[in-house]
Design a protein that fits this description.
mainly beta, 2 domains, 2 helices, 11% helix
């Protein structure tokens, strides 16, 4: 596993805390803790990505499985989902990945490897799916 990069959309707060400004939760994250969505963490007063390059699930799907109407019908897409989510939907079909973080049970791919894998499987595109952000 490589070091996680510094995140965007955050600000410093008192006592070493940071505030995430990505979603409506506006998490204030104390030193050494993670955000509500599990995707960001406070490391020495700096917000870092907690899940960069980590995928909880990878699949080759027909485009028709996605909420797109008549968008390249009959093609395949490389579907990738991460860990954590900023929503807490009562009937989430992806709760096992969206409401948890399992660092030892992930796929790790660089952005280039995601693209290479999609091309290898003749996919027309990549869909980030299953969770937010």
């Amino acid at each position: 596993m490589t070091a996680q990069p510094k995140a965007l959309l955050w600000e410093k707060k008192d006592k070493g805390a940071v505030q995430c400004n990505v979603c409506h939760n506006r998490c204030i994250i104390p030193e050494g803790m993670i955000s509500r969505c599990y995707a960001r963490k406070n490391v020495c007063g700096e917000m870092q990505l907690n899940t960069y390059g980590m995928a909880s699930s990878i699949a080759i799907d027909p485009i028709e499985k996605k909420p797109l109407y008549h968008f390249f019908p009959g093609t395949k897409v490389f579907s990738v989902g991460g860990w954590g989510c900023n929503f807490k939907c009562k009937h989430c079909q992806n709760w096992n990945i969206s409401q948890s973080f399992k660092e030892d049970a992930v796929y790790f791919l660089t952005p280039e490897q995601f693209v290479e894998t999609a091309l290898y499987h003749n996919c027309e595109g990549v869909c980030w799916t299953y969770n937010e952000p």
